[in-house]
Recover the amino acids of this structure.
């Protein structure tokens, strides 16, 4: 073997940032499944409800921006939440394309039951409190600064 670096180093799982992020997210979402089943939600439905509980009624477009979901993914989730009577989807009279998402009374009441979800997950990640705060901060910063490849070339 020559002293040349292996050109395939960049393709090793251990050298990726995306892989541990993906695998960790997948495992955490798997752990959420059981406590969320108790309140009748999937993980995606749960993040939709958390956004509505925190920010109140909003347009589907605003909601999608807040939780990083496109309308193709968000619309079926909202339809299921509407069927479960947790939200109401209301089209604007002046523009049928504009859909407002409104929490129903049942959706508001669900917030109380949802308090058991974070409690059920307490300790599932073996990090200190300070490490979790640091990790959350770094992930938020990374998410806010994601630069898609077509834009990255412009910055250089």
């Amino acid at each position: 073997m020559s002293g040349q670096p292996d050109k395939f180093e960049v393709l090793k799982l251990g050298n990726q940032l995306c892989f541990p992020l993906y695998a960790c997210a997948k495992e955490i979402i798997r752990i959420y499944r059981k406590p969320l089943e108790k309140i009748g939600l999937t993980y995606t439905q749960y993040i939709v409800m958390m956004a509505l509980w925190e920010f109140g009624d909003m347009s589907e477009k605003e909601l999608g921006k807040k939780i990083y979901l496109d309308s193709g993914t968000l619309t079926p989730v909202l339809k299921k939440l509407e069927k479960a009577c947790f939200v109401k989807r209301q089209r604007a009279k002046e523009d049928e394309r504009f859909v407002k998402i409104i929490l129903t009374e049942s959706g508001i009441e669900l917030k109380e039951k949802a308090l058991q979800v974070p409690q059920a997950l307490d300790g599932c990640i073996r990090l200190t409190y300070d490490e979790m705060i640091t990790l959350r901060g770094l992930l938020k910063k990374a998410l806010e600064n994601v630069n898609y490849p077509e834009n990255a070339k412009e910055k250089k």
About this structure: The mean pLDDT is 91. The CA atoms of residues 24 and 135 lie 12 Å apart. DSSP finds eight helices and three strands in the chain.
